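Priority: low. Protein: Protein SirB1 N-terminal domain-containing protein. Input follows.
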Amino acid sequence: MLELFDDDFDAMDLVEGALVLNKAIDQETQIEWAEKELLRMLHEAESYLDGAEDHKERFAAFIHLFYQEWGFCGDHETYFDAANGFIDKVLRTRKGIPVSLGALLLFWGQRLGFPLSPVMFPTQFLLQLQWDNEAPLYLNPFSGEFVSKHTLQAWLIGHQGPLARLNSEHLEVSDNPTIIGRWLALLKNALMREEDYTLALKCTDLALTFVPDDPYEIRDRGFIYQQLDCHQVALSDYQYFIEHCPDDPAADLFKNQVSILQNTPITIH
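Result:
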């Protein structure tokens, strides 16, 4: 298993870190092709923006290029498809989720001189656009539209409940390890939903290199092992979760699973 550390991701562009993550999960990820495609499209963008002098005009042209000319868009029909979290696949299909589309916008946008920064908002990934001496703007990569703080407040209430209040901490610029951690969780959940438990297991193993004793990650690993008929390992992981999170509402459910697994014949792999 490839070991990845926070410092590794801090030293990379977000999209480059995502490609490393993708490759660690699925060896069929086409990193070399994706890197060449990123540079090819950067040169195309430079030519497209040539002649536009006003910085806001250039940015508007860049957004038009990304969503209209290149055809990138949020995947409304199969949002939770794991392919939407793999950069090489997003480059081919031109469909993605906020974090994958946002990482691409960030990669090209920063190289084109636009003051873009990543924000891991509680509901989804955003891009902050901060012109000199102006209030920051927030771009939704899924739609290519700017969102108001009123809309962000509504999203937050939908996510956290009616008492939630938008504050400056929600809009702080995020570091790459934080974003990659959320990205990894999204991929794991998507792969589990698709019942691709072999790749989902790689996600949990990677996550546990960052947080080795996280009982919730160990619980998820137990579920994956159970689906792979590795019942003894699943049993051990469930017991770890119950021991460390006895008051969690799910603890009783996993106690039942432990009872079932203790009475299940051992499968030899």
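Strands lie at 73-74, 95-96, 116-120, 125-129, 137-140, 145-146. The first helix runs from residue 6 to 10.
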